[in-house]
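Exam revision sheet. Question 4 asks you to relate a sequence to its structure. Input first:
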Amino acid sequence: MNLRLVCVALALLSAVPSMTAQTSTSNATAATAQVPRLVRFSGTVQNFTADMAGGGTVARDGASAAANTVGVTFSLYSEQTGGVALWSEVQNVQVDKTGHYTVQLGSTQPDGLPVELFSSAQAQWLGVQQEGQPEQARIMLLSVPYALKAADAETFGGKPPSAYASASPTQTNSTSGANLTAAGTGEAQNAGHLTPHPLPITGSGTTNYVPLWTNASTLSSSAIYQSSNNVGIGTTSPAAPLTVDGDNATTVLAVTQSGTAATAILGNNTATSGESIGVVGQAASATGTGIFGTNRATSGAAIGVEGESASPAGFAVYGVNNSTSGPGGGVEGKSSSSDGQGVFGLNIAESGIANGVAGETSSTSGVGVFGNATADTGFALGVQGTSSSTSGAGVVGSATARTGAAFGVKGTTASSAGVGVYGVATPTSGSNYGVEGTNASPTGVGVNGENTATTGNAIGVWGTTDSTAGTAVYGLAIDASNTGLADQPVGVWGTTNQAGGVGVAGTTDNAVAVSGANNSADNTTADFANDESTNVGSPVIVASGPHYEGVCLMDVSGDLACNGSKSAVVPVDGGTRQVALYAVEAPENWFEDAGSASLSHGAAIVHFEPTFAQTVNGSIEYHVFLTPNGDCKGLYVSNKGADGFEVHELGGGASNIAFDYRIMARRKGYEDVRLADNTERFNAIKLARQRAPVAPPHRASQPAPTVEAPVRKAEQARTPLSHPVQTPVGVKKEK
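Answer key, structure tokens:
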């Protein structure tokens, strides 16, 4: 255990008794009462371990030995470090059960502590060295030991005051020299040779101000003001243990640190919960900065401002600009390094809504977080956010303005290979986000990606995923639907649980609204499914032309209903033309089959083709049309059955000729359907077209805020984010 000094105020054991003049007989032998030259001192031994018996042991040279008495060397120095000891002594100190001891310095020497050590104005330092241990850091002695000099203050030139008392007139005028006192003789001998006193203290001060020596003997007031336990510089109302106010154009507090791994200013808030703040900066100037960090290094991972928070609901760096106008910034960071960060926020919490950097603005043209990468080359990043939390966010931008083109997060870059906004969520599991944007404005945009290039494969928003069950871009309208997808990678997923809502919509004026392309031999280019299980007529796909009121519908039963014609387009004239052949329509569901057979002695039996027989209901009425291929009396049908029919020659003829037949039978399962009414279904489609999604108005590109002169506001109300980070939920559909 390191030596720790528990008593740094040294107490003098006895007071200096007053001295009185003696009679002329005793004055010759009077002596000043002696002040005890002892000083009390308390301390604690090193490497002491208490035991159960009430004693203890002290570790020496790797071993422990019982110790109630320990040798300690006490020395006095004129310097805090180095130099030669002016005085020293060794004492065997008695140690109590807690390792503490109390000694009287000077008790080992007959004359105690030398008075001359305290006669000058020079400070004295006490060094303590336990046996087997190096000397500990020295402690400056306070004013009490210098009271040893008080004995000398009772004399003038080493003589008592009575030596300088004037003789009474009767004694002075007496002819008897024997009546002359020693005092009278002393005054005669020492007249005009008195020792001069120190300079008198002059000056004045103001209450509660710490005094300032303006010269060797004059006191005045300093700039330091103390109120209770608070100290202020430049203020008489300090609200903190140290409050510094300035009212000039220069720096109020300048701190320089030249250490390679040291910190110039460290704000450390150790609270693990609540809205704890390490450093808060405020500025009332329109062009001022609350906290401004500059790193002038031209290489390396140079950081202008770095903030860390261990609280699940804390903020590493939190900047608030409450200005309702102007290009105000919550946090601004700049870095000149090719791989440095303008602003870097690190949140190491493994759970909760942990934010590396959060920015908010109330201005209709303000920016919550603005990142500007002006590099013309390289993988320059305007803003980069990372989060290790399974429900955290790399970057969260919240624009709470109810009007105007307010952006939650906006990033721009001038680099040909740069990224305006780049978000990375590093966990390999959990519903985390690389970038999330939310907006409360009815015409606002949560995340806006804009590419102003007029050529090339320019992309406004790009999403990628490496997960076999992941989604590159996920769009959620109000809330997620209960219908999900099988475990498969998805490029774009849009979902909503709102009646009449649209999961994914595409609109265009003179182009393709939605396009899909595929190069697979087994997979469809477009796959549409409706999981409805109570209405067999529920639509799956609807194609319509509102101006011509043309509608074609395919429902969950696989039925196709169109209010236009259905035709096949066939090339003719060697492929130079293509013509339409229209399908035959009927009020009922008929399936047809055709074939040929021959009469034998005027009769024939025709069986349905086995596969065709499975698709129709032959047990109810069906139709057969006959065409003879030779001379006969005519043909007729008899004995219709579920699997066939008989053909006979009229008049009992016995011809042996060939004939053709055409069968028209009702489709199995649709026997009772005739002229089905589709009025309600088509009216519903017409109503749905009326609330089709409307493309948002074009957004003009917003100018970038001025980076050199950001506007800051003094009052910064630290308000938490007004919304929770919502995790997308997709219910997977089992196949």
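Marking note for examiners. The helical segments are 24-27, 150-153, 169-172, 182-190, 610-615, 679-690.
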